[in-house]
Amino acid sequence: MKTSFVLDSRLEADTLAVATLALSELRLMNDCRWPWFILVPKIPDAEEIHHLEGDDQLELYQEINCVALALDAMTGCSKINIAMLGNVVRQLHIHIIARNQGDTNWPNPVWGLAGVKPYTEAIAASLIAKMRQRLD
Amino acid sequence: MKTSFVLDSRLEADTLAVATLALSELRLMNDCRWPWFILVPKIPDAEEIHHLEGDDQLELYQEINCVALALDAMTGCSKINIAMLGNVVRQLHIHIIARNQGDTNWPNPVWGLAGVKPYTEAIAASLIAKMRQRLD
Question: What is the rounded CA–CA span in Å between residue B97 and residue B89?
Fold first, then answer.
């Protein structure tokens, strides 16, 4: 029996909904230390990008590209960090993060750091609106 | 005047040559704590994958895919980690790492950890030969 896609409960708890793209759910990590988006392909049981079928893989790379371009333009950041780790949450998800000199833990990565700082509702809404506008 | 591609000196110092692919140099991080390969597209001044021209971007994604599949098959690892960070070394390079439960710093990322353990010559040569064979 085929399973259907359900967003991982930890990803759901840690993020805010942004947009539903052709292949993926786009979410905003609810941590205002960095502008940090996550793409989750709506493919049941997917864990590794290199195991996806060709069309899905290509679509996912296009979505990564669109989000990275949008985030770069929105923030004017110093560097975009893109990563697929999945050592803790196995459901395939792609991190796309705007980094700047002097941000928390710069120049090291953002994962596994204590001290999550949730957004205020207004700031999250503004960031989400900017991303949606760029993707339209 | 167009500049030509030169491998970043830090990447060169930290890695061993594996193969020259259509677009990228494939290198092995000289740290036996994890099977960790790096792709460096031979494009002068490239820093962000989303700034590459379409054909180069597609080729790079195909090379990432080939290396990830090869590494997965070679190692039978628990998870492949793929990342483009570049906060320290700006030259575009893609990390492709085999991770296993219980390895150094599992399940957290591998970057920025002290204690590099260089390979013995024989073990590096064996890993490089396996990767070359898979890519052929």
Answer: 18
